[in-house]
Amino acid sequence: MADQPPLDVPTETYADHIILRPPNRLKARVAQRVDPDERLADPVRRAEHALTLLENEFDQWMDSEINALEDARRRASITHSTGDFEELYRAAHDIRGQAATLGFPLAGEVADGLCTMIERLAEASPQSLVDRHVEAVRAMVREDVRDRDHPLGVALVRRLAELRRQTIPGLSNDA
Amino acid sequence: MIRVDFTKLRILVVDDNAHMRRIVRTLLHGFGAREVYEAEDGAAGLELFTSHLPDILIVDWSMPIFDGIELVQMIRRPESGVNPYVPIIMLTGHSEKSRVLRARDAGVTEFLCKPISAKALHQRVLNCVLHPRAFVRTKDYFGPDRRRSGAAAYSGPERRVNETVLIDSGVDRIRETVNQ
Description:
Chain A has a domain of 110 residues: Four Helix Bundle (Hemerythrin (Met), subunit A) (Up-down Bundle). In chain A, 60% of the residues lie in helices and 5% in strands. Chain B is of the alpha/beta class. Chain B has a single domain, classed as Rossmann fold, CATH 3.40.50. Chain B has a five-stranded parallel β-sheet, with helices on both faces. In chain B, strand 2, helix 1 and strand 3 form a beta-alpha-beta unit. Chains A and B meet through strand 2, helix 1, strand 3, helix 2 and helix 3 of A and strand 1, helix 1, helix 5 and strand 7 of B. Chain B: This is Response regulator. Chain B: One of its GO terms (biological process) is phosphorelay signal transduction system.
């Protein structure tokens, strides 16, 4: 059962701020002292193992994320509206956050580049360059290009970065 | 040696992406957590926070209706009848320094960049349970003390002249953990 919020919190009052020290009931409830020699299962390893059991679903998840990205790209290319570009940004943002976990870190880098471009240029992002990013993400997943061991994938990432630098004023080399 | 019993923790995950919720839930279950609740936007998250009183929140930044930052600001109301001191972990694809500082200024307890790792998430939860910071209330801030190091031993005048330095070291630490 979760704790109720503490009612009486010790405070120290200063000229421009108050320090509050709520009692740490959470630690008292869930922290346990254990014998260092006792063999306990490593919770991090257990969690990593649990995640590997999901891996057979990852390709399908990645596909569904890319479908969302392509749908958003299609809508934004027709309307050029702020709302649709925000939707496109969210779809790319989802991929940059998840692609590495789902086994496609390089596609995540491409999505990160697309996010950077939309952050800087918004609706003024050139459609051709948006298309290249979206198609690169799709191609990487289709061709099973996962990480930096794949020279063609790395070359594609570099080329897209170069195109972004040519297009976005003041973009640094590592963006 | 201290161990955190995750079976006794109640955790709320607020993220609009179903895949990410599933990943986080899987990791939390792997740590041993049994009570994990999910919400797909800020409004549903606030409702579940009020009704289920979780021990810890894990919140995405970008979400429809209202986003993770707005959710944190709604929770961090000192007069709130619901627990305004609840630990909040911001889990986000935004890793820019400006975003980290904005999250900090909204009252986030821990910041965790995607891609998520079991080790980094576990460490953030442990920090929340074992090393909670005091809260600070000023005219425009209510949340965990934004100075992470040495505050207890400080005996000089009550001026925050070193704040920038301390913030920077905090950001560096966050980035180091992100790259684990």
